[in-house]
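SUBJECT: A protein chain and its fold
Encoding: whole-number codes for local backbone shapes
Chain under study, with its fold:
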Amino acid sequence: MPKAKYAIKEAKEKGTGRKFTQSIDLVVSVRHLDLKKAENKFSLEVMLPSGRGKKARVGVIGSNLALKVKGVADVILNEKEFGELERDPKKVRSFSQSIDFVVAEAPLMMRIGKSLGKVLGPRGKMPKPLPPHADATPVINKLKETVKVSLKDNPTISCTIGTEKMSDDELLKNLNAMLSALEKKFPLGKQNMKEVLVKATMGPPVKVDY
């Protein structure tokens, strides 16, 4: 059994006994990076090969896209509904809290930027543009198994790699995919990773020998 798999198994065991399904999180502390420099900060989206365990919520904006994504997207707004949303700050905040990703018709992007950008932008939820008559289903299905990762002012990265209900092997695949993506993103690769930990939501962290 790989050492990382032992860490996952231990993290799950130490996090048991809760009345809800806990996520299994990856925590990476970063070194040898000056985070005062903008070029060392980044946001990254990684599709987990074993899935998230709990799918991400995806919103869609646009009348044409809306016709093809019923039953696929979690929140769907045609242009009329979008117009009602952008005039109500409370609805904008509620919308931003209800979704993890947004897909929108490309011609609406400038309008979305003006009306929703101040709320969606800082949360990293600005829409991904698609042609109005595209089938957004494949994009949405991919996003549902995708995790966002960001490195800003704090030299620590934390993200989910699944849930405690997933098998150790599934979580290991996700762990390796995430670490591989980070290794490629860091200028010094593994050398930029000071420590790698896994933990259940309410459990203690367990060190991963990476």
